[in-house]
Amino acid sequence: MATEDARYRETSQYRLWSFSPSKLAAMRETTNAAARASISERLLANPPPPSAAAAISAPTSSANTPDPENGGNSTPNPNALPEFLTPADELHLVSFYTSELLRAATEVFNFPDHIKTTAAIFFKRFYVTNSIMTYPPTEMMIVALFFGCKAEGMFMDVREFVQRFGKKNNEEILAGEFLLCQGLRFSLDVKHPFRALRGAIMKLASFDDIDRKRLDDAEQRAREILRFAPIMTDAYFHYTPSQIMMAALSLADRGLAERLIQDTFHFVAPPETGSGADTPDPNAPVPAAPSAAKQKPGEDKAAIIGSHLRDKVLGAIEACRDILSKELPERRDHWTNKSFIKTQISPLRKKLTKCRDPDRWNLVELQRARREQAIKKGGSEDGDPEDRGLADGAVFGEPLGQPLKKRKVEVKKEEDPFGGAL
Amino acid sequence: MSRKPAAGTLRASAALPGSAVGGTSSSSALPTLSSDDMCPVCKTIRYLNKDMEFLINPECYHSMCVACVNRLFNEGPNQCPYAGCHKTLRRKGFRSAFFGDLSVEREVDLRRRVALVFNQVEDDFETLEAYNDYLQQVEDLTFDLVNGSESKRREVEATLQQYEAEHKADIERNRKAGREADEQSRRRLAAERDAARQRRLDAMREAEEEKLERVRNREAEIDSLAKGQPIGTQFKRRGQANRALEAAVNATATATAGLSGSLADVGKLSIRGLKEKKKAPAPEGPYDPFGGMDFATSRFKFVPGTLSHPSIERYKTDPQHIQHITGGYGFEEYTARALFEAFAGLGVFIEDEKEVGIGLSAAEVASMSAGIAAVGDRMDLD
C-alpha cells in the first residue's frame, strides 16, 4: 500500500465523511425518515401553530394558501400532518442553498477558495445527518460560513460578520455553532484539491515538452471547475481530493491528466531496480524517500505504481469526471436563474415552511431551551440525549452511547447500593 | 516381663500410621509428653533420671527416652519397641517433639510436607477465586492425610508423590522464589537494623561531642573572661554551635541517604524477584507520535529545488509579495506538500473500500461470490 494512501486513510475526511453512493443515499433516506417521524410526533403533540389555527378558524383564509391540496387537507382535520419533503427534495434544496452560500461567500466577503469550500462542505455534511426540515437552512448557511472561516484560521468578528449580511443580531450564529459541530461529528479538517492542483501542475511543468501556456490555461480552468463542481455534487463524499483534482484537470485538459497518471504509474512488470527512473532527477541525492522506495521488492512496487492500479485509478477519475461534468461552472447561472428559482425552489420552500420542525426551527430558542434543561438536570446532561442520539446515531448506525451510559448511572444512584430494607 | 509395653496402658493411637492395634478407637490417642514422667519403653522414671528426654520418630510418633533410642538403634535400623507397631526406625529419624501433643506434632509435620509440594503463591493464579479453589483443594488433601483412614492416606500419599514428580520444575522454582523472598526480607531487616544501629551510634557520638564541646566552650569562656575579652568568645561559641548544628544536619542527611540507598538496593532486588516470577513486558521502542506511519513517499520522488510555479516565483522575487515570507515555512515545504496532496489518496477507492474493505474491489467480490454461488449450485445438482 502506498504510504500516501495510508496517510490519507488517517484523515477524518476518509474515516468519517467518505461514503459509497448507495450508503450516502441510504443515510439521506434515514435522515429524512427520522425527521418525518420526530416532526410528526411533535406536530401532533403540540397545538398547531397559530397561522394554521387561524387558517382553520377562518375558512376564507384557506383560499389564500397557495398550495391547494394542503389547504384542502387541513381544513377538515386540524391534526392532519403536512406534506413532508422527500429525500430528493431535500437534496435539491441543500444544493440550492449551497450555491447560495458560495455566492454569498464570493459576493459579500470575497473569501479565498479554501474557506468558501470548507464552509460549503460543512453545510453539506451537516445536512447529511440532519434534515433540512429540522434546522433552518438559511441560518445554518451563515453559521457554516462563519464557522468555516474559523476552521480555516481566519477569525472574523462576529458582529462585523452579521453586519455584512444586513443583520443586527449575532445570537443565531452563536447558537448554531455547536449544533453544526455536532452535526460534523467534530471533524473540522476538510481536505481540498486546490493545493493538489498546484502540485500536479508543478510536476507537469517539470516535463520539458509541455507548453507553459497550455499548463496555465489548464490550471485556470481546472481551478474554476474545482471552485464549483465538486462542491455542488457529492464528489467530496465519494472521491479523494487527488482524484477530484485529476478529474477536474482531465475536464480542463484530458491529455495533461493522462500524462501525469501514466508517468506516475509507470511501473512495468519484471523488477529491475533501475527501471523506475524516469522521474525528473534520479541522480540527485534525496534524503530517505528514494532509499525506502528502492528497498521495496518488485511486487510491492507493482502494487503501488503498477499498471493494474493505473487502470483502476483511471476508472475512478473517469467516474469522478462524469460527476463533475454535471455541475460545470457554467451552471452557476442556472442556480441563480430567477425562473429556475420560481419554478423549482419556491414550491419546495413553501412546502418546507409547512413541514418544518416546530421545536427546532428557531436556533436561539432551541439553545435557550437546551440550556434551561441542562440547568434543570443539574448540568449532568447537555441537550436532550434522545434527539441527539436519533439525529446522529440513527443515521450512522451507531448511537452516541454517552447519554445512555449517563442515564444508567443515574438509575443506579437511586437504588440502595446495599439492597432493600430487611 | 516383656520389653514391649502394652499399647493400651500408654493410650497409643489406633490412628497412628502403621499401628495395627484395633479396639482403641479414640481419635487423638497419642501419648502426651507433659504428663509422662516415665519412659514407656524402659520404664525409667524422671525421679531417677532428672535429665530424661523423650524423642519421637516421625515414622510412628511413639516416644521413648534418649537412653532407649541409643540402646535400641545404635546398631542400625530396628523395629519400634511398642507393642503392635512394626515400623522400622532409624537412629537418624529421632528428634525431640516440639509440641506436647503428639497428634499436633504429626499434623504439623504432614502439613509441612504438603506445603513443600503445593507451594504455589497467589501471584501464580489469574484470579483470586482460582487461588482460593486451589487452597481448598490442598486443604482437602491435607485433611485426608491427617485424619483419613489408612486407604485414604495411602491414596493421598500416592497423589502427592505423583504431583511432585510431575511438577518437579514448578515446585523447585517456587521453592527457590520463596527462599529468595525470605532471603530478601531477612536482608532488608538486617539492613534496617544496621541502619538503626548506625543512627543510634551516630546520635550517641553526636551527644558525646556536644557535651565535650560544651565543656570546652565553658573553659574557653572562663579563660576569655579571665583575659577580659567576652565578645569574641561569644561569637566563637555561636559559630561553633552553628558548625555543630551543621554537622548534625550533615550526619543525618548522610545517614538517611545511606539508609535510603540500602533500601533502594533492597527494593530493586525485590523488583527483580517479581520480574523473574512474572513475565516481563515486551520492551517498548522509543515513543512514536505518528504511530509507526511511514512518511517516505512511495508514489513520487520529491527532489527539492526541481519544482516551481510562476506564483511561487512571484513570491520569491516581487518586492510587493516578499513581505509575506516568514521564517519556518520555506517554499520547498509548500512544494512538497502540494506534491504530496496531488498524489495522496489517488489509490483510495472509497466506494470499494467502504463497501467491502481495503484492497478489494466491489466488482471483484461480486463476481467472486457469484462464482461461489455457481459452484454451489452445481454441487447441489450433483
TrEMBL record, chain A:
Q: Which CDD domains match?
A: CYCLIN_CCNH_rpt1, CYCLIN_CCNH_rpt2
Q: Where is the composition biased (Low complexity)?
A: 52-66
Region Disordered, as annotated, extends over 39-82, 271-299, 372-422
Q: Which UniProt keywords apply?
A: Cyclin
Which species is the source of this protein?
A: Podospora australis
* Gene Ontology annotations of biological process type: regulation of transcription by RNA polymerase II
Q: Give the Basic and acidic residues compositional bias ranges.
A: 372-390
**InterPro entries per the record?**
Cyclin-like_dom, Cyclin-like_sf, Cyclin/Ssn8, Cyclin_C_2
- Please indicate if the UniProt record lists GTP-binding as a keyword: no
Write down the Gene3D superfamilies for this protein, in alphabetical order.
Cyclin-like
Family note:
Belongs to the cyclin family. Cyclin C subfamily.
Q: What protein name does the entry list?
A: Cyclin-like protein
TrEMBL record, chain B:
Looking at the record, which segments are called Disordered? 165-196
Keywords, sorted A to Z: Metal-binding, Nucleus, Zinc, Zinc-finger
Q: What is this protein called?
A: RNA polymerase II transcription factor B subunit 3
Show the SUPFAM superfamilies listed in the entry: RING/U-box
Q: Which GO terms describe its molecular function?
A: cyclin-dependent protein serine/threonine kinase activator activity; zinc ion binding
- From which organism does this entry originate? Podospora australis
Output the GO biological process annotations, alphabetical, semicolon-separated. nucleotide-excision repair; regulation of transcription by RNA polymerase II
This protein's GO cellular component annotations are:
transcription factor TFIIH holo complex
Q: Where in the cell is it found?
A: Nucleus
Q: Does the keyword Metal-binding apply?
A: yes
Span of domain RING-type: 39-81
Q: Which domain of life is it from?
A: Eukaryota
Q: InterPro entries recorded for this chain?
A: MAT1/Tfb3 (IPR004575), MAT1_centre (IPR015877), Znf_RING (IPR001841), Znf_RING/FYVE/PHD (IPR013083), Znf_RING_CS (IPR017907)
